[in-house]
Amino acid sequence: MAVVIEAKGLTKKYESFTAVDNLDLKIEEGTIFGFLGPNGAGKTTTILMLMGLTEPTSGEARIGGFNATRDPLKVKRITGYIPEKVGFYEDLSATYNLLYMARLNGIPDNKSNEAIARALEKVGLKDKAGAAVSTFSKGMKQRLAIADLIVKGPSVAFMDEPTSGIDPEGIAQMLDLISAIAKEHNMTIVISSHQLNQVEHICSRVGIMSKGKLVMEGSVDQLGQKAGGGKVIIEMQLAEVTPEILEGIKSVVGVLKVEQRDEAVIITGTEDLRRQISRVIQEKNGLVVQMKLQSYALEDIYLKYFREAQ
Amino acid sequence: MTGFMTVFKKELEDSFASWRFIILFTLILLASVVSIYIALGTIRSTVTGSTEFIFLALFTTSGTTFSFSFMSILSYLIPLMGIVLGLDAINSERNNGTLSRLLAQPIYRDAVINAKFLAGIITISIMILSVLLLVTGLGVYMIGLPPTAEEAWRLLFFFVISVIYGAFWLGLSILFSILFRRVATSALAVLAIWIILVFFFNSIVTNLANVIAPVGETVSSQVNNVQLSINLIHISPANLYQESTYLILVPGMRTFSQILQIQAGASQGLLATPLSITQSLLQIWPLILINVLLTIVCFAISYLRFIREEIRST
Question: What number is the ipTM of this complex?
Fold first, then answer.
């Protein structure tokens, strides 16, 4: 698979503040890449640099082989962009808004008219084609932005927080649409988000950004293994927690750490120690109400960096 | 080039369909028609024999109850046109979130600002031209005489000067729409400049000249004072416009400001014969040139600011 998005040592400094710090990234064709991180981690700045909308302080960004700083027009011809606060000309109709963008891309009207009608139908805005965008909800505007992408038909698309501020049903609709157009048009899509659970399902790869650095990058499974570092966490609820029981658990071979939170006990160990632990508890006359093994889901890794950033 | 033409066409369509255009145009139309009727009444009652340039007098005469001539009404409304058309040119796109999407399309960044500026100038030109034609038509109907060739030429130059003046205010308000993020702020800033230039500038200049070059006993000190005032007054595009339109529409007028009249009267005995059109143009071309330069300066600053502006995440 060919690499379509590439960043080498990408850095952006604003006076004393470093928004993006020496970022290296390669994204292959056809990937849906989840770009995660808390607000202010530098996701948007990275996207803007990749698209050639903002000049990097140092390093370079390439889209489809074109340098984003030196050849911004070539890059913009093959990229689509949905900004976080997606905006349309409110007084104009949905169709006219799309037509304007199509014209700016040099698509002749006789071609774009048909494409616009089809795209609006695809995103479920067919009935609203002639309505002014000012009557649209946030979710409808997001879908209109997707229609805009379909009309342009770029090979790479950047979506900045496409799910923020819309209702759960709208989010599901958006995500379905995104994975559908990615497949249909073989589009490489970068989705930035601070809500992992929403984009986790449709992304084949994720990168986590924190304080301007890409702290982790890989497929969802790879990341889970990496972040766990071979450790296993067991969460347990007991009828009663006594110091003897806690001592007993600590004596089990392989247990690294025992924490008590109210009724719950959280144990970190080197492997799955549920059997050994429950035996110890029985010996001490304790009663296990519930016991479960926590896998290191992406969520945990993500939350870890989320907390670090704050 | 496709980018420029696309943005240009859209901007033009937008401004003609907008409420602000309709309101502005109605206002100008009403004020102009009223001023022409008043002027006609005044001319009829005070005709003193000479009917030379009677047609131009329609544009420059005011009444006693309505003390605005067509010329003076335009001198107030042209800045308003420029301001209203440009005050949210860039910041509204930024606030609506359309700017980042617009700039993410494969067009040169300067196409956006060039197209917006040119579309504004065309809109202003069309407004002024249609009012001018309407008023001329009314004048022909009421006086029963068409304008002479020279009068027509003078009106054409009046049109050109007016468009340049409108372009200055358009450039200034586009500049503020780039500098300030909020539309209310940019509107206030450009209105503040308009008020200062139109209402306070001349008294400020007179006072300033008196401080820098106080009038003493000697003739040379008086000359210095006057000279300084004249130079300073010509900084204001509002004065430049008023002076040049007066000189082009009132052929008998050799100079405009009182100070200049004193100076001219002292150096040469004033004759009441009107100037030829070439002489009038000779008088006003430096004034036009300064206005063109001021417009270019405004636009150049806007251009550079816009080209260098960073699209930021917040």
Answer: 0.83
